[in-house]
Amino acid sequence: MPVVRTAKDIKPLSKVRANLRRFVERAYKSTAPVVITRRGEPRAILLGVREYDRLVNAQEREEIRRVINLSRKQIARGESVTLDEFERKMNAKLKKLTRKRA
């Protein structure tokens, strides 16, 4: 996400409210966020949907990398199970849950 660098990136709520359509269009066309202030304090950030999606996707990719790295470490320590073992354990748990609900 781009760094907020100038006064044009920081706007009071009153100005955003009065010119909402213009600020929404700016957010849509730009990757730069607009920091919205109230009484001089930051309160919200207006961000275009493409930039938001990019940030969410980057966060999801990082989480996937973290899980893969953790899995590799577990495998290296011998903390893994075969697919057949996993299926047996899951089927046993599902049977227990089904019995509890019946």
CA-CA gap between termini: 51 Å
- Overall pLDDT confidence: 90
* Poorly predicted runs of 5 or more residues: none
SSE succession: EHHEEHH
Number of H- or I-type helical stretches: 4
Structural class of the helices, strands and pairings?
Answer: alpha+beta
Taken as a percent bin, the fraction of beta residues is 5-15%
Q: Tell me the strand order in the biggest sheet.
A: 1-2-3
Helix share bin = 55-70%
Count of separate structural domains: 2
Radius of gyration: 24 Å
Count all strands and give the number.
3
Summed up, what is this model?
This protein has helices spanning 13-18, 20-29, 49-76, 83-101, and strands at residues 10-12, 34-38, 41-46. By secondary structure, it is of the alpha+beta class.
Tell me what the structure shows.
This protein has 102 residues and is an alpha+beta fold. The chain has 2 domains: 7-47, YefM-like fold; 51-101, no CATH class. Helices cover 62% and strands 14% of the residues. It contains 4 helices and 3 strands, in the order E-H-H-E-E-H-H. The longest helix is centred in the middle third of the chain and has 28 residues, at 49-76. It is elongated, with a radius of gyration of 24 Å.
Topology:
Layout: E1 10-12, H1 13-18, H2 20-29, E2 34-38, E3 41-46, H3 49-76, H4 83-101
Parallel strand pairs: 1-2
Antiparallel strand pairs: 2-3
Features:
single chain, 102 residues, alpha+beta, YefM-like fold, 62% helix, elongated
